[in-house]
Amino acid sequence: MKEIALNNVHLKLGAKMVPFAGYNMPLQYTGLTHEHLAVRSGVGVFDVSHMGEFIVKGSGALDLIQKISTNDAATLEIGKVQYSCMPNGKGGIVDDLLIYKVGDEAYMLVVNASNIQKDWDWIQKNNTFKAELQDISDRTTLLAIQGPKASQAMKELTDIDLEEMVYYTFEKGKFAGVDNVLVSATGYTGSGGFEIYFNNEHAEKIWAAVMKAGKAFGIAPAGLGARDTLRLEKGFCLYGNDIDDTTSPIEAGLGWITKFTKDFVDSKVLKKQKENGITRKLAAFKMIDRGIPRKEYEIKDAGGNKIGVVTSGTSSPSLKLGIGMGYISKELSKVGMEVFIEIRGRQLKAEIVKLPFVK
Amino acid sequence: MNIPADLKYTSDHEWIKIDGDIATIGITDFAQSELGDIVYVEIETEGDNLEKGEVFGTVEAVKTVSDLFMPVKGEVIEVNDKIEASPESVNDNPYEDGWMIKVKLADMSQLDDLLSAEAYEAEVA
């Protein structure tokens, strides 16, 4: 089990730690609902240092990234971030990731913790472009400071104009007295805010400064539990749940990051899917009957026939009802249609809805 | 961790308060803290005669769901209706407002199998 730099800080705060993707990570501090609502209405801070970061450099860097990813990285300028995914050569997904253009021929890829080794091997295997690769995951701390009050709460810590930053851009600068912090206007909560990347050695100092600056705004340390409910309310995919090596980006609703302006792994297959249409897609539903859908519960039609499986499900802390997603055939998952979720032997009514669940 | 000395416990993290041949049953402070924020408690066994170890209900937290097991054999004679409207009382006050069911005990000898507060504390330590 790997230990993140702030392990002891989280323990002191009374966090419940759980093993996740080979790391001991904070699941929750005071309570999931409190943390969730703090992020939705104020500000919360997540330690997500388990995430992986790779540097890709050199004259072949862009060619490599263009080959392995679905989005068009040629459109990136320095200071911009792009959401993308890596197809696996069989029409499925190796991982979803963020691509940062940090220099003329330099990029940072941010990948899921559970996939660090798999992604590394996959990228190496496809690196026929002699791009220089470096895995900086183990020395990088990543804090996600999220919520509508994040920029106001953090502005005293940096000269970067947080309130003017555009979504999916980043700047490097001084933060809490530490040079060279990468401040990125991104996140996985849908409530605005920042993600900041820096070397582990500064972790305690920056954490303390963030908590202090956030105090007047009621900042809550938030764990992976709240991170999951926050992302699901917005309909963001989670690798391992909603997307994996067997799901296509088109089926997953990631057509918007799949650009056929270039060739990439699986571009022919995916283009065909887009042109000919797909038979199933990732659909979202909310419970009509009282019940909480959870991963792997069966989705059924009114006749009791299995039509899909829940890939993510929870009780929404904002809506106070059960919400979920799962792959269902297109004809049976139009908005407004009725489906049934089998929960402990009972078929409970749900309705197909549009994403996001929470605006 | 709050483990009142005057209650009995099980390894399934339930507490039992004995009053004559009536047992009041709930989940322990440890259990509620492991479950996290409880969203609702579903108990539809009122009036049923259940064996020890049978499921008498389920508790749904945001992140997880857990079955509730009968710590004793007997008839479920009452369900705490108040936790339907305020399931958070199981988190806030598991030994008082958060009680779940009352059971008329089938026999008294089965109480010998239950854990004392000290024995339960040793299990969760």
Keywords:
heterodimer; A: 359 residues; alpha+beta; Gyrase A, domain 2; Elongation Factor Tu (Ef-tu), domain 3; six-stranded antiparallel beta barrel; 8 helices; 20% helix; B: 125 residues; OB fold (Dihydrolipoamide Acetyltransferase, E2P); six-stranded antiparallel beta sheet; three-stranded antiparallel beta sheet; 19% helix; globular
Number of strands of chain A: 19
Percent strand of chain B: 35-45%
State the helical fraction of chain A. Answer: 10-25%
Termini separation of chain B (Å)? 9 Å
Task: Please name the CATH architecture of one domain in chain A.
Answer: 2-Layer Sandwich
Largest sheet of chain A: 6 strands, mixed
Count structural domains of chain B.
Answer: 1
Overall mean pLDDT score of chain B?
Answer: 95
* Series of H and E elements of chain B: EEEHEEEEEHHEH
Helix/strand structural class of chain A: alpha+beta
Structure description:
The complex is a heterodimer of chains A (359) and B (125). In chain A, helix 2 (32-41) packs across helix 7 (224-233). Chain A has helices at residues 7-12, 32-41, 61-68, 116-125, 150-154, 203-214, 224-233, 267-276, and strands at residues 16-20, 23-28, 44-47, 52-57, 81-87, 93-103, 106-111, 132-135, 140-146, 170-175, 178-184, 193-199, 220-222, 280-287, 298-300, 306-316, 321-329, 338-343, 346-353. Among the domains of chain A are: 2-49 and 138-233, Gyrase A, domain 2 (2-Layer Sandwich), CATH 3.30.1360; 279-353, Beta Barrel (Elongation Factor Tu (Ef-tu), domain 3), CATH 2.40.30. In chain A, strand 18 (338-343) and strand 19 (346-353) form a beta hairpin. Chain A is 20% helix and 35% strand. Chain A has 359 residues and is α+β, with helices and mostly antiparallel strands. Chain A is globular. Chain A contains 8 helices and 19 strands. Chain A starts with 6 loop residues before the first helix and ends in a 6-residue tail after the last strand. In chain A, the strands form 4 sheets. Chain A has a 6-stranded mixed sheet. A 6-stranded antiparallel beta barrel of chain A has the order 14-17-16-15-18-19. In chain A, strands 5-6-7-4-8 form a 5-stranded antiparallel sheet. With 125 residues, chain B is α+β, with helices and mostly antiparallel strands. Chain B has a single domain (8-110), classed as Beta Barrel (OB fold (Dihydrolipoamide Acetyltransferase, E2P)). In chain B, 19% of the residues lie in helices and 35% in strands. Chain B contains 4 helices and 9 strands; from the N terminus they run βββαβββββααβα. Chain B has helices at residues 29-35, 82-85, 88-92, 117-124, and strands at 8-9, 14-19, 22-27, 38-42, 49-50, 55-61, 65-69, 74-79, 101-105. In chain B, a hairpin with a 4-residue loop joins strand 1 and strand 2. The longest helix of chain B is centred in the last third of the chain and has 8 residues, at 117-124. Chain B starts with 7 loop residues before the first strand and ends with a helix. The model of chain B has no long low-confidence stretch (mean pLDDT 95). Chain A binds chain B through residues 16, 28, 31-33, 225, 228-229, 290, 292, 294, 314-315, 317, 320, 344, and chain B through 33, 36-37, 39-40, 58, 60, 62-63, 65, 91.
